[in-house]
Amino acid sequence: MNGSIQITEAALASLIGLTAHEVPGVVGMAPANLKEGLSRVLGRAQVSDGVVIGKDGARYTADLYVVVAYGVSIPTVARNIAERVEHTVKTQAGLELAATRVHAVGVQRV
Questions:
Q1: Number of structural domains the chain divides into
Q2: In whole numbers, what is the pLDDT of the chain averaged over residues?
Q3: Rounded average pLDDT over 40-54
Q4: 74: Cβ–Cβ under 8 A, 6 or more apart, which residues?
Q5: 70 assigned to some structural domain
Q6: pTM of the full predicted structure?
Q7: Which among 17, 48, 49, 56 is placed 20 to 30 Å from 36, CA to CA?
Q8: 47: in domain
């Protein structure tokens, strides 16, 4: 195979956001910063909202800001998110994350 494949940080963030939404106990994602919060207020939410991609040397890191359902085990949901995200990124993007950090920033009744 000649050439190379580039996966942008935006594509990686979208993949991670979609994966996190599939985990039982996740109600949604929370804005990771002020700019994202303003976009959401203005009605422009994206699947990558609540996902911040960083770099650790040559490898990517992922911070996920999630809202979980009331009554679930937050540590269990966070562990499930991290495991599923790492697996999906490895199998679908061919990348290994240097770190996956899940921040439970809210709890909501569903």
A1: 1
A2: 88
A3: 70
A4: 68, 104, 107
A5: yes
A6: 0.85
A7: 56
A8: yes
Residue keyed to tokens 């991609």: 53
Residue type, 36: E
CATH code of the domain in which 73 resides: 3.30.70.1350
Q: Looking at the domain assignment, is residue 2 inside a domain?
A: no
Instruction: Specify the pLDDT at position 49.
Output: 84
Q: Please report where in the chains the tokens 């650790």 appear, as a residue.
A: 56
Contacts of 88 (CB under 8 A, 6+ apart): 15, 16, 19
Mean pLDDT of 69-85: 98
Mean pLDDT of 26-47: 62
Nearest of 22, 15, 8 to residue 90 by alpha carbon: 15
Identify whether the C-beta of residue 90 lies closer than 8 Å to the C-beta of residue 64: no
- Provide the domain limits for residue 43: 9-108
Q: Alpha helices of the chain — where are they, by DSSP H?
A: 9-21, 34-41, 74-88
